[in-house]
Each structure stands twice: as structure tokens, then as C-alpha cells.
Amino acid sequence: MNDRKPIQINPATGEKIFDTRAEKASERIKGRGYEVVTDKSHLTLPEYNASIKWDDAAKAQMNKFKESRRGADNYVAMDGDFARYLEDHHSAPPVERESLDDECEIMVVGAGFAGLLLWYRLRDAGFTDVRFCDKAGDVGGTWYWNRYPGIACDVESYSYLPLLDEMGYFPKHKFASGFEIYEYCQSMAKRFGFYDRCLFHTEVTGAKWDDEAKRWTVETNRGDKMKSKFLLIANGVLTTPRLAKIEGMEKFQGDSFHTARWDYDVDLTGKRVGIIGTGATAVQVIPEIAKEVGELHIFQRTPSTIDVRDQRETTQEEIEQWKNEPGWAKRRRERFAKLFGRRALQANDAFLSGKAEQPKRRTRSEGPELSPEEQIERDLETSYRIMEQIRDRVDAIIEDPKVAESLKAYYPYGCKRPTFHDEYLPTLNMSHVHLVDVAPLGVQEINEKGVVHDGVQYEFDVLIYATGFDFMSRETFARVTGINGQTIDEKWAETGVRTFTGLHTNGFPNLLIVAGPQGQGASFNFLDAIEEHSEYVVNLLTKMRELDVSVVDIREEDEIEFSEHCAAADVASAALRDCLGNFTGYGRTEPGSLAYYGGKGALKRRARALDTLEPYLFS
Which residue range is the domain that position 217 belongs to? Predict the structure, then answer.
């Protein structure tokens, strides 16, 4: 390791190449995702009870459930005493290197899926002077940080993993474990020369546009002050952990950590463990750690929807078929994008493999076409039926009626991230596993020994925070300064979130945002937006090269028009997201400022922009 040269010069191109990938911190960092469950009673939802109606009483019940939790989302800044919850437990210390003050053509923030896809496409288009900065010690983005026991992707792996055709890779299971996905990211990085372009353990602390030089100056926590012609922000939508703000939490004397920074040096075997949160992460964690802990207490503010997973292994027959079908993964992903609601997340194999017709959306069977308002009401009715079946599943599996009642969620399907597990509910029947219902406001007090709730002291050796992520975090946008000396965050504080198709914002030349606000669609498969955006970025840069122009900004009127479109699309379908959750900003964000709900509107606008060039300000 002492002979390692983190920075070298490629003699053929004169470009710098890097070797900054950190060593793995511990061999204890390993695990699995969803198990293949064979108990048929856990693999189907109960039949819908036709006597249950979507009526005013049902709507009132959902509204009461929502309003009782208003104001419960209270999170603490992860600095000072709480900065330790952001420490990287996955890698050895950063590779020592000199600070850089040179220039590259394209600087990218992020080395996850978006970074990998951008590099693959940029390289193929002839853009090689590209550099990636990531505060992690390796590639993978969210799959680097999230390595908790039981981690898996809820989108079927055959549609989710990028470049499967190009890699000749076939996922082991229909729903891949996070550990497999992380290793796949590493394999892509090796195959396509990505590691040579990456500065790991390097966090961008500021980026400022120099209008005279027509360059971005990018500063990092490693003392770098690099210049680049283009700046691409591609660090994901669910990468900034949130820590619940609870009175006295700093007093706890045992071990504690956030699920996004799982500490494998803390042995849970036989321990008294408390976990705060029951969202998508906790639903995967709990069945795994229940197999080794002594006592487990689960603190639930709002229940998740626990749907059927029905995990299975990839068959040899499928692998042989795909080997003889060039482009199979892309076609499958395109079919996946046509599915909606629960059908997308269940990922029907017959349709996705091209053996069956697309399932039709449930609309009025006869009579005139439904109006948009009527279709929304019909979708809400369908959602309620599905949610009722999921609630019936709870009754069918959970042995304690009181516990079962607290596990029933009353909000539209998909308003909060749907969860899937065939072991989670049975785990709650175990004698050493205890669900503590802390609805509607959550845990309010922690002391030296553990959690205090309703006058009861719960003592723990280990306390785990499964309190989620800041969806569409604007942390990076507070560090990027444009022409007028304003950061993106400052601009949006004045104007509201304004972009052109999620990728450009006026006043920030040569800046492109991948899968950020107004750009990441409502699709459950985040890869859809990453694919579309990376393709657009490369097409735009190629067009600029052909036109021999070096700077691009976007017209203000175009970003205003698009942002108004985002808001209108959000409002039109808001009833389907009528809950207080991460994806809806807990009811505090302006319509159209987070995810994009305008269907193919953004894609059409980007295609038209590249065709007419009208929205662009070139120089």
C-alpha cells in the first residue's frame, strides 16, 4: 500500500488518472436481502371484502389518521454531537493524496448509478476528460452507504440494474440484495475504467461560476480547487440521512447508529436492542436482526404497508433465454415503465417478459370516458381496496389483535414508500420481539438507559435509528453559486424551485442536475430518470461540440413555464398522495417542487429543446 500512487498521468492522453478507492473497513460487512419464503399463506393477499366501501366514512378515517400525525416530523441537524451519525463505517481511512488545482472538462458530483451511467455514455461519445467526486470511499451511491442487514431493492432487479446487457450479468434473485447491487456497481466501475476517474472520500464543499473564465471552480474537503467547463450534480435523491429529534437522545450510554451508517463493529448477538422507525429500511432490517438479538423493541409512529414480496431465484431457463435476446433488459425496463401502482412493484413476469398483454388500468367498463377528476376518484377507490387487503393480511398473520390494529395503515397506496416482506409480520409474533406503538407523535424522550414512553422505561444496549432520508435534499444546492452570486438554494428560496425539465436552472451556466427536484419522476424505478437524464446530458454536450459553442444556460421564461407545469401536474393528482410523508414534504412544500408528476411532458420538452435549440442561451 505504501507504493500506491493515487494520482498519475496517462501518457497517451495527458489526463490525470486516480487510484483513491478505499479499502473495506471490515470483513464483517456482509449480508443478504430477501429470503425465498415457501409458506404459501404468506405469499398472497386475502380476497377483498366487498362489504368494505370507499365512502365518506372511509375518507374521514384516512383524514383523521393523517391529521393526528401533523407536525410529528421533527429532525435534528447532524452536526456537533450528532455528526458521528454520519461517520463512514464501511471504508478504511481515506487514501492520502495531494490537493488538486488543475482543470478538467467535466466535473461530476456523485459516483452512484447516475455517475456510472454518465461515464459510460460520455466515454462512448468521446468525452474522456471527466472527473467524479464522491464523499464515499467507493462507488455505489446509496448502495455504498446502505449496507444494513436484510437490505434489498424493492424494484425488480431485471428492470432496475443498469447496463445488464452490456455487462452480460444476470441478477441472482428477482429482487436483488443491496450487497449484490453494490458488488455489481464495483464490477461496472472496473469494466468501464470508472475508478480511474474518481476522487473518493472527496466532498464538494463549494462550486462557483467564473463568468469571465467561463469555468466552474470546485472546492472540496481535501483542499482541492479545481476548474471545470461543465458541472454535473448527480448525487441522488435519498443519500442524506435524517435523525429524529428526541429530547435527551445525546444522553444514551449504549451504542447507537443510523441504519444508513450501519456499524458492524457493534455485535448485536444476545443484546437488548431498540429500533426507532418502521419505514422501508426498518421493514427489511427487523426480520434479520431478530434472528440474533436477545430482545428487540420496535418503536412505530406510522405503520408501513406490508405487502407480499414473493422472492424467487433467477432460473437457469431465464438466463439461457436472455443470453439469446440482445437488448432484453432495456425492453423489460420499457415494459416496466408502462405499469402503474402496485402492478409495477409486483412486477408481473408474464408481461415484463413479453408473454402477455399489458394489464389494463381499472376504468369505467361502459359509458363515456372518465374525466380526470373521475379517474382520480376511481384510482382512490382501487387504492383503498388494495390497502384493505393489506390490512387484512395483518389480521391473518399477527396473533395479537392489539398489535395487529396498530399495524394497519390508512393512507393512499404509494403515498408513502410501499414495503414488501414475507418475514416481517411473522417476526412480530416472536416472543422476544415487541412492537411499541408511539403514534401519533413518535418517541418523545430518551435517557441514559434507553427510551421512555408513556411512563415506561425501555432499557437497551443498542439503539438504532431507522428514521429515513431527506428526500430531494438541497444540501448540495446550497454550495453552488451562479452568475449573480446566489446559490441555487438562495435563488429557489426567492422564486420557488425553478428548473427546465429538472436539469437546468437559469443563472447557472453549464450546470446540469441529474434526477433532482422536478426531474425525478413519480416512477417507482428511479433508474428511469437517470437513464433519460444521462442520455440528454450526452446529447446536449454533443450538440454543443457540433455547434462549437462552449457555454449554455436556459431562458428564464422556459424554466418558469416548466415549473408552472410541474405545479399543475402535482395539484391535479395530489389526492393520490394525501398523507404526511417524505415524498410529499410532510405537507409543507409548494406543489411541483419535489418529484415530477407530469408523465412524458418533461421528456417531450427535452426532445423539442434539442431539436429547435430555442430554450438555450448559447455563448
Answer: 7-24+91-240+471-618
Three-state secondary structure call for residue 292: coil
Asked whether residue 613 is domain-assigned, the answer is yes
Residue 371, SS3 per DSSP = coil
Task: Evaluate if residue 361 carries a pLDDT over 60.
Answer: no
49 touches 390 (CB < 8 A): no
> In which element (H, E) is residue 182 found?
helix 178-191
CATH number at residue 15: 3.50.50.60
Instruction: Give the start-end residues of each E strand in 349-501.
Output: 419-420, 433-437, 445-446, 450-453, 456-459, 462-465, 480-481
- pLDDT given for residue 1 in this prediction: 46
Q: Is the pLDDT of residue 210 over 80?
A: yes
Count of structural domains, the chain: 1
pLDDT bucket at 364, cuts 50 / 70 / 90 = very low
Secondary-structure breakdown of the chain: helix, strand, coil percentages, each rounded to the nearest 5: 35, 15, 50
Q: Cell 429530547 appears where?
A: 247
Q: Is 147 part of a structural domain of the chain? A: yes
Q: Report phi then psi at 20, rounded to 5.
A: -120, 10
Whose cell is 464501511? That residue is 90
**Residue 77 included in any domain:** no
Q: What is the DSSP string of 209-278?
A: EETTTTEEEEEETTS-EEEEEEEEE---SS-SB-EE--BTGGG--SEEEEGGG--TTS--TT-EEEEE--
- The more confident residue out of 586 and 577 is 577
